[in-house]
Amino acid sequence: MITQTSYLIEPIGFVRSALSRLEDAPMQGDEGAPDAWLELTPEAAPGLAGIAAGDALIVLTWLHLADRAVVQVHPRGDESRPLAGVFATRSPSRPNPVGLHRVTVLAVEPGRLHVAPLEALDGTPLVDIKPYVPDFDAQTGVRVGWYETRSNR
Amino acid sequence: MITQTSYLIEPIGFVRSALSRLEDAPMQGDEGAPDAWLELTPEAAPGLAGIAAGDALIVLTWLHLADRAVVQVHPRGDESRPLAGVFATRSPSRPNPVGLHRVTVLAVEPGRLHVAPLEALDGTPLVDIKPYVPDFDAQTGVRVGWYETRSNR
Predict the structure, then answer these.
(1) Do the Cβ atoms of A135 and B147 come within 8 Å?
(2) Interior CA angle at A150 toward A38 and B28, to 5°?
(3) How far is A36 from chain B (nearest CA, A)?
(4) What's the rounded Cα separation, in Å, for the pair B88 and A88?
(5) Which residue from A60, A126, B32, B61 lies 20 to 30 Å from B87 (Cα-Cα)?
(6) Where does the pLDDT of residue A149 fall: very low under 50, low under 70, confident under 90, or very high at 90 and above?
(7) Torsion angles phi and psi, residue B113, rounded to 5
(8) Helical segments of chain A, H only
(9) DSSP class per residue in A85-113
(10) A37 phi and psi, to 5 degrees?
(11) d(CA A138, CA B74)
(12) How far is CA B48 from the centre of its chain?
């Protein structure tokens, strides 16, 4: 089987947010992130049909400011922790910097969604939007690796 | 702010699986999918450091056989259901066909992971691997949209 060696992501839209500086962005959406708008391109906007306020979504972004050459990091930027492979962490710097964000829909308008919480910066390209389905996406009793266990919301 | 209009995904590796035909692949990993190997490129392999058997991961793939021109579908291919936007479904056909798979690590070998369940076909390019973190990725009491509610595992 011949496999292509690279693939082109064409953004389906962009994040519009009050977060404009990397140093203001929390590491994850549950760590103080604000609401934001997902503005879709005219071509992608029909793909929103069926999404309603209250829906739980998974938003995939392209973290365009990430360093793609990084394969090992100190988890959460804490140099007292040993180096870990980026695939064992949620570091934004990684070979294909796709951000994964679980959000709730606050409102739907033509061609755009109001969602929260979202830690992505204003202007971040949108790769994809999927419904969050607990049967596919959630799992209980997991080993959480580098992360502290906190109560689930 | 000037934004690039497209981004290049360079696979970090490929899926090795007994699933070789699209018609044999279940729609989701919890619907009878087998185990599989995630084989990383030499450049990306150091990114696996810190991953161990028993870890819960989120695997992102590039569903290279998907139809990227599709923005509306009948959910789960059932034509008795009304057309929905692809972003309200888990259809593989979508503008940027990134597959999202929650798997458990069965074994770690140099440069590769043995995982299950994974419904992706043999040869599917790997985009990213992230640790599954319930505090970030799980959510209770969600509206599940087009999908039936089944008991969580």
Answers:
(1) yes
(2) 55
(3) 17
(4) 29
(5) B32
(6) very low
(7) -120, 140
(8) 134-137
(9) EGGGS--S-SSS-EEEEEEEEEEEETTEE
(10) -105, 140
(11) 24
(12) 18
Smallest CA–CA distance, residue A136 to chain B, in Å, is 7
- Euclidean distance between the first and final Cα of chain A, in Å? 44
CB atoms within 10 A of CB B133: 22
Write the single-letter amino acid at B41.
T
CA distance B132 to B118: 15
Q: Per the structure block, which two tokens stand in for A111?
A: 């061609």
- CB distance B15 to B37 below 8 Å: yes
Q: What is the pLDDT of residue B68?
A: 96
Which tokens belong to A68?
Answer: 């793609």
The two structure tokens encoding residue A1: 């089987």
**Torsion sign over Cα B151, A58, B126, A68:** negative
The torsion defined by the Cα of A37, A42, A46 and A49, in degrees rounded to 10, comes to: 20
Closest C-alpha to A43, from B70, B82, B99, B9: B70
pLDDT digits (tens, 9 = 90+) for B3-21: 558 999 999 999 999 998 8
Q: Which helix (H) or strand (E) holds B137?
A: helix B134-137
The closest CB to that of A131, out of B11, B44, B89, belongs to B89
Identify which of B51, B26, B52, B4 has the alpha carbon closest to the alpha carbon of residue B118.
Answer: B26
Tokens standing for B2? Answer: 């000037």
Return the residue in A51, A133, A153 with the most chain B beta carbons within 10 A, the one to mutate for interface testing.
A133
Q: Tell me what pLDDT residue B139 has.
A: 60
